[in-house]
Each structure stands twice: as C-alpha cells, then as structure tokens.
Design goal:
Strand content: 35-45%
Structural class: alpha+beta
Number of helices: 8
Shape: elongated
Largest sheet: 9 strands, antiparallel
Order of helices and strands: EHEEEEHEEEEHHEHEEEEEHEEEEHH
Number of strands: 19
Distance between the termini: 45 Å
Length: 414
Amino acid sequence: MSATPTPTNTPAVGRRAWLALGGLHLLNGTAPLSDSDAIVLVELDAPLEQSFPSNTVVLHWDRLGPLELSARTVDGTRRHTTKARGDELFPGMLPGAELRAATTAVTGRETGPLVPLFYVTADGDRAHVHSQIRFLAEDACFIRITPEPVATSEVEELGWLADAVRLHAERFLFLNNHQRYYRKCFGGKELEYKYTLAPPVDTWTLTVELYQELLAGGLPGYVMEYRDEYQAWDYLNHLFEITGPEEERGYASFIPTTDGKHLLKRKWYAEDAFERRETHTYGLELEDDGRFEDHIREELGVQAVRLPSFRRVRYDINFESVRTGHVYGIFFDHCSLVEDRDVTLNQCELEYLRSRVAVEPDEAAVLEEMSEIVAWLEAFLRARGLSDERGFYSKRTFLKDAVAARPELARKVG
C-alpha cells in the first residue's frame, strides 16, 4: 500500500503555488546545480489543484494572467524582478524576451535552454514539489516527486531546490522519457466493469458526449489523460476458450497487428468477474491456417475450443485522477461476428489502466475512485435511456452464448 499523504480538499484561498523556471540541465543532468544558476520563481494567483497534496498538475500558459517574475541566483547574491503574461513565458516553447532578460540580469550572460522546472504548492506550513515531465507550446504537465512535504518557509528562498533536483535525478529514467512515466497497480491483473447495451447503439456519439462532459468538468477531480485522451481501435479477434487444466481456464485471443504479426491476449478466469489475470504477448508470426491451434497446444500447453472470430470497433476516453495519478478508461465498443455481422455485442466498459506517479502509488484509492466514477457513468447512461446495470459479461461468454443459440457458428471461421 501507499505512503501517500492523506489529501485535504482545502479551499485554494490561503494556499499558495509557484512555478520555478530555469536551466534544462537541472532536469536532464547535463550539468550540476550551481550557486550561480538563475532560477525564476513565479507565484501564481492560486494553486491549480483542488486537493492537497495532488499528484498531477497541468498548466496552460494562456490561462495565467499577468505575472511577476522573481529571478535570482541559487545562492541569492543577485536578484531581479520583472513582469510578463503567462503566454509570454515560452512562446513556441522557447523563452520569451522578459524571461531571457530576467535571467541575464542575474547572471550577466545569456544562459542555456530555459524550461519550466517545478511546480511548488503549499498549504499552511507544508509544501510539495512537482517535476515537469512534459512541456509543449500550449501547456506543461507536472507530477509530484516529494513523498513527504517540505517546509513552506523554504519555498521563496529555494531551500527545497537541491532536494528537488536530487529527487528528479534519482528518477530520471522514469521522469525524462516520453510516456514512460507509468506504473501498474495490481500487476498482471485487469480491473473492469462492463455495461451491456441493447442495440442499436451509436457508440461514436456516446463517446463524444462523454468526452465533452469530462472536458467541461463533469467529473470533479479528474482531467483528461495528458496528450492521450482519445483513442480509436478496430481489429479482429480469433478467440479460443481455454478449458483445461483447471488453473489455466480463461481464453487466448490472437489479434492481427499492423506489422502482419499477431498479439496474443491471454486472460485467466473461471467465471466472468471484476478482476482477471491478463498478459499480452506481441510479435507472434502466425497464420490462421492451424498454427493458432498449434501454438495453443505446443507453446501454451492447454486444451482449448475455438469460438467464432469477431471484429471489435472501440472508442476510448482516457482520464486521470489529479489526486492520485491513477488513469482510467471508459470504452464504447461494438463487436460483430465475422461470419454473421448481425450477431453483435455492444458494451460500455470502465477499466483501471495505469498510474502516472513518481511516489508510491495508492492502490486502495483505485477501488475508491472506480466506485466514484461508476456512479457518474451510470447517471450518464441512464440519462440516455441505456442500461446502467453493472456487470462482467465477457467476450468469451458472448461467443459461447452465440454458439449455444446457433450451433452452426461453432465451426472455424475467420
């Protein structure tokens, strides 16, 4: 379990937040922190997050008003202040004129690349530091790196800076690589609720409407997953029910990939359930000419029955908790049998996906947050006359039910 501090939904009034700007070398380690380095501290009008401490902070440059830039050397021997608007700090991702002038004023020279370094937020005598992990022309994303708070009195005199640089350096592989800042709670397991919807279902419109509600803040405490909020998928599944040995029961599904190979998705479960063990194996060079069966028998060493192949069209909306960094997905999908496209399964699914955290993740919060999300999702479905009955009806069960209703579908297809 996590050592994450218990959050408080303290009103932003009375709380403070700062943005620290400076040399890129303090994040990528190309040079050490020096007393003569220029740091620009910008106090924001109010913290960007609602709860304290939070995990994820996304800052939009054009939403920041007029700002005072307090530039200084790390040792404090030289200081300078100036003003700028938020959208003037990094036009086109390069430092604006005011920011360059502020750092030059305290160093006496042009400095190297300047970037947003840290977001610091304080509540009373406690403060937490968030490292920048993504920076683009429109915005920047920060995640918390301090497991325990630092003293607020140190913020404006940079007493926290050396430790922040050290903490970032200790996690550089995690923090400095594009989309590699994820970890998975409940390793090797899938946590998912399913809602089976009576056709016809307009999955596209439902996805867009749900997306619009999330963007408008309809689910407080959650934001769209940074730069990966929407996905579209369309792929075949050649699925085998694994019938034995008993401990191996579940299914194996071969999914064609764009490189001409196959992904093997394997799930273990005796009965449809919220939690299932899951693995993905990419890069299998197999043809659908009996080699699927050979792989199951010879490589997996299990007994299996082939079920009808199907095509799955799926639209995903991904969003994350700003408090915990846990990322969730809501998917609307339409599955149709290859041999008879009128045999369909329409579902909405809610799944825990991953966690964007640099501190120890709070696993218990996943179940708490999923309970919170399903209440909102079920209200969304009810408002559109759709089923809000939470369940676990799986693709395997759908295919078995289809074969039971129409035995001729049991032959090999696809």
